[in-house]
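Re: that backbone. Tokens:
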């Protein structure tokens, strides 16, 4: 891609990484402690998420742009607003049925169900796929592509997704 542009978005949301288990799996050999490590991310907790989407094109439009930043904002606006102050939860999470019930009962728990464990990696792919689909629907995929999506969960942790 000869040009790349990016736009960042902020939103606040809760989640829980219900699959976290620090006692086994990829890299667990590096975590050597006398006590069993605590899986703190299985707790319901929240983040000030920072999302960056990078769009690329080999050709500029007649306006000398990959795409107006304003339109990128518009393409993601509804999704970001829906996710803001929500609790992102995997429908396969054992807590999902009860959280859904609580949400229905009190109306002050805005759940955002997804069908994956909401890690930074999986959420980055989720945004990538969403924006790619929006471009496809608009007939723009031949001209503009989503190059990369980066999602910061904390000031020190982020995931990047580049598509297939
Ligand atoms: N590969 C991933 N690992 C972890 C994820 C993730 O999405 N992908 N998520 C979490 C937790 O949700 C957590 O919020 C972030 O974890 P971590 O960086 O360990 O948070 P800390 O506050 O402890 O960071 P420090 O800056 O190192 O104190 C866990 N792992």
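Recovered sequence:
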């Amino acid at each position: 891609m000869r040009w790349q542009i990016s736009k960042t978005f902020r939103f606040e949301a809760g989640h829980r990484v219900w699959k976290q288990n620090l006692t086994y799996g990829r890299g667990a050999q590096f975590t050597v402690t006398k006590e069993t490590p605590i899986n703190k991310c299985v707790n319901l907790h929240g983040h000030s998420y920072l999302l960056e989407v990078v769009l690329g094109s080999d050709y500029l439009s007649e306006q000398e742009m990959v795409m107006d930043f304003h339109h990128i904002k518009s393409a993601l606006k509804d999704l970001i607003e829906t996710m803001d102050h929500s609790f992102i939860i995997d429908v396969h999470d054992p807590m999902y049925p009860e959280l859904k019930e609580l949400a229905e009962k009190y109306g002050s728990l805005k759940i955002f169900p997804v069908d994956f464990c909401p890690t930074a990696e999986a959420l980055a792919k989720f945004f990538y796929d969403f924006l790619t689909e929006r471009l496809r629907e608009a007939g723009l995929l031949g001209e503009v592509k989503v190059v990369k999506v980066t999602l910061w969960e904390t000031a020190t942790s982020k995931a990047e997704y580049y598509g297939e």
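The mean pLDDT is 96. The first helix runs from residue 69 to 83.
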